[in-house]
C-alpha cells in the first residue's frame, strides 16, 4: 500500500459495509489520500486485507492506528459517538448522513467540533453533488427564471430495507424510518433551493409495513417569504422514484431520476421550462440527461481540499446537518399523534 509518498493523508474507515467500501474506492482515486485501516463488526479479529489495508472489529482499535482522517459509515445511533471520538483523537472527520439518530446526537457532535476549530467535519449529503442538482441550483441563483414560487418533491422506494432484521427498522438504533434514512436528502435539497422553512404541517404513518419507524411522511412546508414546498417520503413506492419540481416566476425546473448505486431510480434528467408570452400551457422546454455519477468523487475531493488547504467546508457542514435534522424532526413533531405515540421532541 505504501508507495513512499509520506505526504498523503492516512485514512481510516469506520463501518465497512456497502457505503464504506464504496467510499474506499473513491478515496483511492485522490492522489493525496490513502486508506490504511478499516473496522467493522463483521470482523471477528484484527488482520490485513488484500492490498495491505488493516482491519479491526471495533472502532477503538481503528483509532489506535496512525490516522489523519476518519470516515464514519455506521448506523445512526453509533455515528455521533465515533465522530466525537475521531475529533477528540485529532482527526478530520467525514460522516455519512444522517448525522445521528436524534437532535441530541448532532448537538453533542457540534459541541465537540467547537472545541477543535482546526479540524474539518463534513457530512455526506451526496445529492448536492449530482450534476443535475448543481445545474438546477446555478439556474435558480442566476435569477434567469425569477423567484421560486413553490416546489414538490417525491422520494420513494419499495421498502425501508431488504430484510427484516436490518437495524433501519428499529427506532432505538435508527431514530426514524424512510424520512430520516432517505427522505433527508430531499429535505436537504429543499433547504438548499428555498432556504429555511418557518411553517410545517405533516402526516406521518407506519400503516403498511408496521415497523417501529415510519414508512410514509407527507409534509407541507412554507418559508417566511412564502415559498411553499410539498414533500412525500415513502417506502410504499413500488417503482423507485426521485422527483423534485420547482415552479418559478418565469419558468420551471424538473429534476427527475437520480443516478445511484442500485441504478433503480431511472435516468437522471433536468428539464427546464421557459414561460412564454402566451398561456397555452405548452411552453418551450429543454431536457438534459446525465450518464455519469461523479457526486461521490466530487464530494470527497472537496472535503480533501478543505483539509489540505485548511479551508472551510463548503457543503455538508455541521450546521447544514443540524438544520436539516431539525426540519426532519419538525416534520415528525407536526403530526401530533405521531409525536405523542413515539415520544419525539425537538
SS strand fraction:
25-35%
What characteristic shape results from the CA principal axes?
Answer: globular
Helix/strand-derived class?
A: alpha/beta
Average pLDDT, rounded to a whole number, is 95
Order of helices and strands: EHEEEHEHEHEHEHHEEEEEEEHHH
Terminal Cα span: 46 Å
- What count of helical segments does DSSP give? 10
Neighbour order of strands in the largest sheet: 9-10-11-8-12-13-14-15
Helix content: 25-40%
Major pleated sheet:
8 strands, mixed
Low-confidence stretches: none
Kindly provide the radius of gyration, computed on alpha-carbon positions and rounded to a whole number of angstroms. 21 Å
Number of strands: 15
Short structural summary:
The protein is α/β, with parallel strands linked by helices. The chain has helices spanning 18-27, 59-62, 79-88, 103-114, 131-142, 171-174, 178-194, 295-308, 318-334, 336-342; strands spanning 9-14, 33-39, 47-48, 54-56, 69-72, 92-96, 121-124, 148-156, 197-205, 216-223, 228-234, 241-248, 251-256, 268-274, 284-290. The longest helix has 17 residues, at 178-194.
Outline the fold blueprint:
Elements: E1 9-14, H1 18-27, E2 33-39, E3 47-48, E4 54-56, H2 59-62, E5 69-72, H3 79-88, E6 92-96, H4 103-114, E7 121-124, H5 131-142, E8 148-156, H6 171-174, H7 178-194, E9 197-205, E10 216-223, E11 228-234, E12 241-248, E13 251-256, E14 268-274, E15 284-290, H8 295-308, H9 318-334, H10 336-342
Parallel strand pairs: 1-2, 1-5, 2-4, 5-6, 6-7, 8-11
Antiparallel strand pairs: 3-4, 8-12, 9-10, 10-11, 12-13, 13-14, 14-15
Helix pairs in contact: 3-4, 4-9, 7-9
